[in-house]
Every structure is written in structure tokens, then in C-alpha cells.
Design a protein that fits this description.
Blueprint: H1 11-20, E1 29-40, E2 43-54, E3 58-62, H2 69-76, E4 87-90, E5 93-95, E6 105-107, H3 119-123, H4 125-130, H5 134-144, H6 163-176, E7 181-185, H7 193-210, E8 213-218, H8 221-227, E9 230-234, E10 241-246, H9 261-283
Parallel strand pairs: 3-8, 3-9, 6-7, 7-8
Antiparallel strand pairs: 1-2, 1-4, 4-5, 9-10
The structure holds adenosine-5'-triphosphate (ATP) and magnesium ion.
Amino acid sequence: MPAAPSRGGTAALARDEAMAAPSSTTAQNLLEMRGLTKTFGAVRALDGFTATVEKGEFVTVVGPSGCGKSTLFNIVAGLEEPDAGGAMRFEGKSVHAAELLGRVSFMPQRDLLLPWRTVIDNAILAMEVEGTPRRQARALAEKMLPEFGLAGFGAQYPHQLSGGMRQRVALMRTFLFKRDLMLLDEPFGALDALTRTMMQRWLLDVWQQHQRTILFITHDVDEALFLGDRVLVMSARPGKVKLEQKVDLPRPRPAELVISPDFIRLKRTLLEAIEEEAMKSFTSEGK
Ligand SMILES: Nc1ncnc2c1ncn2[C@@H]1O[C@H](COP(=O)(O)OP(=O)(O)OP(=O)(O)O)[C@@H](O)[C@H]1O
Ligand SMILES: [Mg+2]
């Protein structure tokens, strides 16, 4: 049974780490977030968010709408600076948010496919911005099409694709921008339940193949549990970690896992925490 990349670390991963990491870095944590706070005018979006992400881990984040999940990702992607007082470490080194720009791959919440670009040219966008020659980037993307269920669709435009295919193009772009840490903000949020389930299983396969570290936002508790090594439940705004739940379910995870007693037990714990927060955020709406 193939182990998740985080478990024990494969020889290849260990070798890559040894080559990439400075000798002083021994920690397994790829990312550490300590006391991250973010205020927009009168609105405090985040308030002391603290969590770590290990190399190779798949960490999912759930929380009520407006609790600061996308704000957190914007900070980790280097697009927003947190308020003073918080701290982050990446690959064992203390960093400001701005220093993370370009060092993580980020799939934002909104579908950002450009309608005038083909599948291939959308997929290579981040690589192009980074300066990879277009021909080289296109060749890499072409090779990846079958794995992303897009064989034969490279020359199509976004409007010619199904919702699931569009999401796979966006994911392919995120994977092609090769960074250890991937931030995925509700990538399957707009999909119907069946497509979503298929995409989840597919994503786990791709994740295991590519050995990346993933931080994944979702509203869906089943999705958070099915995918994650750990689930972070956020409080209502201002967001912080309310509950950190380890998901000690074996991998690879079969579809029927979601009806197993272990899964349902974990789901109950998460639902209790989330519902409490969702009620708080609902009753404070507009305040
Ligand atoms: N650039 C901004 N300027 C002002 N307020 C902002 C900005 N970005 C986010 N906010 C506010 O911060 C709060 C958190 O927003 P955020 O988008 O992070 O929530 P979220 O948890 O991702 O919500 P959802 O689940 O609906 O996507 C909201 O009240 C939002 O209005
Ligand atoms: Mg959001």
C-alpha cells in the first residue's frame, strides 16, 4: 500500500530534502504560522491563527463563511501582510509574507482561467510569468494532460469545457508551478456532488504521485476528512484554530471510507465544532 508522502518520507523525498534544505534545517515543518492577525478597517478577519504544516502533509481547513480562510491563504501566498505581532516560518526560516510571493503555488477561490487562452496556455500561465520559455512550458503541460483527464483538450478554450475540467485545468496550472507547498482554496466548491467525489479521489492520486504539501480550504466536512491528514476547524470571524483533528484513517482511501464507523465518529466531532461556529457567525451577521 503506498504510504502518504508525509508518513516516514520516501527515500526520494528524503534525498530532495537533504539537497534543498540548508544543513541547519532539521525540522519537518514546512510552514509555521504563529498568531496571525489581519484587520481590514473595522473588520478583524483573523485573530491569532496558529498552525503548522509538515512537509508532505495534506492539511484541510474548514470554517464558516467569512471567518478569514481566504485571507489566511492570501497571507501565506505573500499577497497580504498580516498585522504586526504574528510570525511565520517557511522551510525552517523566519519570513515576512511578502517573501513567500512566488514560493508557494496558489489556486485562488475564484476560477481564474483566461477565456481567450487555450487549456495549454492557461495551464502554463504561472510558469510563463516566472520566465519559463513558452515552448518548454507547453511541452511539459502537454505531457501532463492525460494525468489531469484532459487528453485531447489542450487546444480547447475554457467555455468548451465542463466545470470539472475547468477545475482540473486550474489545478494543473497550480501543479505546473512546482512548489513544495500548494494552497487550494475551495477548488471543488462549484461542482456537483458526484463530480466532486471523483475529483477528490483523483486529487489524492495526483498528490501521492507528485509528493507535494497541500493546504486545502473547503466548506465540506466529508471532503475535509476524506482528503486530510489533519483538519483545522476555524472559529467564526475573527478566525483562529478552534479544533485541530488528526485523521488517522489509512491511505489509500477507498470511496466507501465515508460510511465507515471511524469516519463517522470523526465527522461527528467536526460537525459539532463547526455548527457551533456557524451559529455564532450567523447570529453576528451584519454586526
Ligand atoms: N481586501 C479586503 N478588504 C476588506 N475586507 C476584506 C478583504 N478581504 C477580506 N475581507 C473581509 O475579511 C473577512 C474574511 O474574508 P475571507 O474572504 O477571508 O473569508 P472566507 O473565510 O474565505 O469566506 P468564504 O468561506 O465565504 O470564502 C470578511 O469579512 C471580508 O469581508
Ligand atoms: Mg474564501
